[in-house]
User: Which sequence fits this backbone?
């Protein structure tokens, strides 16, 4: 493998220590400890439900999941107390509806996805087109003045960006998806999502933790040398960056992005080395062709870089790397229960070597995530004890601070107190 | 039992055919319920042939592998599954990590 010197950002081997005191860049966020209440309060959760999740665009998948007319996915949204069907219509356009028959409320679709020509309720046989319009009602003449044209499935707004499907529970949202994502679009424009989405792996689990506890764990590298000592510390820390300081970060009004360090002197284990030799890998790739990445990914153009993260409010994140990317969704159920879903994407594996390489990458990712999983539930247990009221945060945890601030700006729990 | 066509060069791997598992869920189950000494033996046997296996398998189309090649393919995927156990953790599963059976693959 090539031996390469770190470049970029003035050619320093270590992250520029002069600019990683991130609170100095965003003084409006303050430096005070943040309250624990938003992680445990049922009242706070009820406000998040009403003021965030029912009011913003939410990512529910990618267009590759439903490429053909009639293909659909069903998205459980316990946080919004509903289930939503997203379907590709005969016209090729996406449509989204609450998964509810207009007759007596039965769920129209019972599985998680598939392909169909129309939606027929399994209760009384009411049938709807892919556009949601009511087409057929058995024994229709026995109803009283049935207005079929007003009894279609209840629509939900749906739109896409870069192949990512977003829905909005307001069928006529005041803000377009493009406007909603405007802060992060320049950073990801040109990233080859479509090419890299050919192979998809996904894990899902339900954890006993608040959705923000789960999300926060992936918003800082400070825990990495400790929690991931065995699995990932060698690749993502070094003597010059022992605490996994970010290479760069930008906080926006609602969203944020970061660049993470990678250790150029990392020596892969035998199997990791073989995986790297035969294909892509989540571990540091020393042959990164930086010019192949769009300008917004690894914007400092440092070679000692591993992965970027784009946090899309409220619960979706995209981690673009070189030749592979992953996403997390944290879907709240209650104030202390969350569905955690991770997808990792690769280009189409064309041979056995590439398939092996992808398998190793996903297994290593999964094992690293397993290390995170336990802390989430331990933290929730103890935050709920009430033994403490606040948590102190350092510069490298500014994304946690920012996430708290953005949520609170929507929720306004402390505004009148 | 090994399918016919099994290359002589890889005959030393035939005792490990119980690692020829088609899905991640099966491979995880095998890793998490095996003794470390057995995992280590499989790792050692596979690693010494890995590059040759992958070069050999690369001649077959992924979706239409002959049965013996598919077995070898699935064994390399099992090697990927157990590699962190051997190379990073020294045990099938780290102490105090999330229950691997709760993190459910939605893929094969």
Assistant:
């Amino acid at each position: 493998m090539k031996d390469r010197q770190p470049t970029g950002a003035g050619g320093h081997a270590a992250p520029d220590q002069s600019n990683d005191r991130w609170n100095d860049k965003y003084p409006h966020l303050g430096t005070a400890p943040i309250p624990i209440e938003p992680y445990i309060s049922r009242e706070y959760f009820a406000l998040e439900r009403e003021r965030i999740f029912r009011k913003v665009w939410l990512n529910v998948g990618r267009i590759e999941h439903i490429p053909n007319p009639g293909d659909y996915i069903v998205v459980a949204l316990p946080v919004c107390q509903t289930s939503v069907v997203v379907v590709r219509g005969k016209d090729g356009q996406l449509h989204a509806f609450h998964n509810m028959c207009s007759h007596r409320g039965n769920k129209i679709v019972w599985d998680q996805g598939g392909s169909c020509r129309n939606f027929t309720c399994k209760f009384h046989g009411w049938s709807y087109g892919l556009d949601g319009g009511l087409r057929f009602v058995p024994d229709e003449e026995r109803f009283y003045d049935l207005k079929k044209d007003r009894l279609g499935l209840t629509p939900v707004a749906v739109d896409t960006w870069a192949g990512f499907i977003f829905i909005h529970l307001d069928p006529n949202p005041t803000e377009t998806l493009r406007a909603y994502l405007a802060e992060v679009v320049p950073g990801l424009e040109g990233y080859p999502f479509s090419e890299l989405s050919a192979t998809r792996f996904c894990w899902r689990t339900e954890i006993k933790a608040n959705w923000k506890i789960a999300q926060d764990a992936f918003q800082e590298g400070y825990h990495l040398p400790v929690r991931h000592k065995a699995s990932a510390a060698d690749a993502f820390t070094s003597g010059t960056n022992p605490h996994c300081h970010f290479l760069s970060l930008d906080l926006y009004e609602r969203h944020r992005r970061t660049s993470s360090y990678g250790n150029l002197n990392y020596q892969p284990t035998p199997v990791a080395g073989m995986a790297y030799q035969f294909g892509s890998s989540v571990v540091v790739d020393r042959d990164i062709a930086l010019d192949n990445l769009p300008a917004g990914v690894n914007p400092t153009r440092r070679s000692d870089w591993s992965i970027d993260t784009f946090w899309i409010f409220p619960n979706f994140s995209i981690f673009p790397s070189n030749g592979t990317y992953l996403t997390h969704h944290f879907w709240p159920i209650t104030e202390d229960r969350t569905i955690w879903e991770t997808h990792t994407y690769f280009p189409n594996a064309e041979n056995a070597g590439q398939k092996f390489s992808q398998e190793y990458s996903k297994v290593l990712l999964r094992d690293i995530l397993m290390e995170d999983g336990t802390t989430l539930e331990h933290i929730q247990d103890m935050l709920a004890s009430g033994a403490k009221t606040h948590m102190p945060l350092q510069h490298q945890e500014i994304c946690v601070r920012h996430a708290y601030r953005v949520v609170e700006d929507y929720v306004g729990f402390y505004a009148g107190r | 039992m090994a399918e016919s066509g099994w290359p002589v060069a890889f005959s030393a791997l035939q005792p490990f055919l119980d690692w020829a598992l088609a899905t991640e869920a099966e491979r995880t189950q095998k890793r998490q319920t095996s003794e470390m000494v057995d995992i280590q033996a499989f790792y050692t046997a596979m690693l010494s042939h890995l590059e040759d296996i992958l070069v050999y398998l690369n001649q077959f189309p992924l979706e239409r592998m002959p049965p013996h090649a598919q077995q070898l393919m699935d064994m390399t995927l099992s090697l990927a599954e157990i590699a962190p156990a051997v190379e990073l953790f020294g045990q099938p599963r780290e102490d105090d990590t999330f229950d691997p059976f709760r993190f459910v693959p939605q893929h094969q």
